[in-house]
Amino acid sequence: MPATGELLLLGGFAMAAVVTVLLVMPGPAALTSPVAPTTSDQDLLIKVRQAGLWEIPTGQQAQQRALSARVKDVGKHLVEDHQKLDKEVIAVASRLGVVLPSQPTADQQRWMAQLSTKTGAAYDKDFANLLRAAHGKVFSVIALVRAGTRNDEIRKFATTANAFVLKHMTLLESTGLVDYDALPEPPTPSPAPVAIAAADSRRENQ
User: Fold this and answer.
1) What are the boundaries of the region Disordered (predicted)?
2) How many C-beta neighbours within 10 Å does residue 35 have?
3) Closest CA to 59 of 179, 172, 162, 183
4) Per the domain annotation, does 111 fall within a domain?
5) What pLDDT, in 10s, does the model give residues 9-66?
6) Which residues lie closer than 8 Å to 187 by C-beta, 6 or more apart?
7) Could you give the angle at the alpha carbon of 87 between the alpha carbons of 42 and 123, nearest 5°?
8) Does residue 195 lie in a domain region?
């Protein structure tokens, strides 16, 4: 039977071994730092912020000035949705260190001034067409950034913004006042790769 001193010595070795194991065992993996927003990521946040800066007051104006009940209702939806989206874009920009503008663009200010000179049916027509054209432009920006961003925050935000913009385009079109011929045409599709084109041709000939 080991002596008391030997037991104490063995116990000391055992404790030292435990301490050594704890020291060399790897701890939990450190959280990876978020990917810094690119220029395109920042541009998306800026454009969505500026959209709200002119669409909120314009939607409020439409509820007072529009002749059509449908246009008044669309204006109400734009205000409510952009107030929600504005809070989110400010929060995301704050987390990512992106400085947002506090004023609409020069074009947006010009559109607001243009609408302020109109009343009745003329107001309704300009409201539907100016806002529909503007939504089409930001819609393509959101889609491109969403497709290629490396930033998780931007990806999530772009998904939300995309849903809002698509909803607003549909609402504006529901007024029956949108002049589709005045909208820019979609880009010309890229030529199909030769291998794919040849395969399609063979299928058609079968």
Assistant:
1) 184-206
2) 14
3) 172
4) yes
5) 344 444 444 444 333 444 443 334 468 999 999 999 999 999 999 999 999 999 999 9
6) none
7) 90
8) no
Q: How confident is the model at residue 92 (pLDDT cuts 50, 70, 90)?
A: very high
- Is 152 inside a domain boundary? yes
Q: Are 71 and 62 in contact (CB under 8 A)?
A: yes
| Residue-range definition of the domain harbouring residue 104 | 39-180
> What's the CATH number where 47 sits?
1.20.1260.10
Residues 66, 70, 73, CA angle at the centre, nearest 5°?
85
Count of structural domains within the chain: 1
pTM of the model: 0.75
Tens-place pLDDT, residues 60-89: 999 999 999 999 999 999 999 999 999 999
Q: If we measure between CA atoms, which residue out of 96, 80, 184, 194 comes closest to residue 134?
A: 184
Higher pLDDT, 3 or 66: 66
- Determine, yes or no, domain membership for 24: no
Number of residues that make up the chain: 206
- For residues 88 and 83, give the distance between their C-alpha atoms in angstroms, rounded to a whole number: 9
